[in-house]
Amino acid sequence: MHLFLKSPGLVLCKKCTKKILPHTVCPYCGMYRGRQVVDVLGQLAKKEKKAKEKVK
Ligand SMILES: [Zn+2]
């Protein structure tokens, strides 16, 4: 899985300036093309829940 080492075509999120894939919702702040399209906090909560379930 060496695909993860290379990250071609990354762009900077205009809101949080993190490196993200182009044409995707920013996973850090949920912005896409200037709009808040994802409830990032809600997603994090879900991920944490899943992680805890996996531990069990
Ligand atoms: Zn962002």
- Bound molecule types: zinc ion
Please report the total strand number as a whole number: 4
Tally the helices: 1
Average of pLDDT: 79
Strand order of the largest sheet: 1-2
Number of domains: 1
Q: Descriptors for this entry?
A:
56 residues, alpha+beta, two-stranded antiparallel ribbon, 1 helix, flat, binds zinc ion
Question: Can you characterise this structure?
Answer:
With about 55 residues, this protein is of the alpha+beta class. It has one domain. It is built from one helix and four strands, in the order ββββα. The strands form two sheets. Strands 1-2 form a two-stranded antiparallel ribbon. The longest helix is centred in the last third of the chain and has 16 residues, at about 40-55. It starts with 10 loop residues before the first strand and ends with a helix. The model has no long low-confidence stretch (mean pLDDT about 80). The structure holds zinc ion. The site of zinc ion (ZN) has 8 residues, from loops.
In short:
With 56 residues, this protein is of the alpha+beta class. The protein has one helix at 40-55; strands at residues 11-12, 19-20, 31-32, 35-36.
List the helices and strands and how they pair.
Elements: E1 11-12, E2 19-20, E3 31-32, E4 35-36, H1 40-55
Antiparallel strand pairs: 1-2, 3-4
The chain binds zinc ion (ZN).
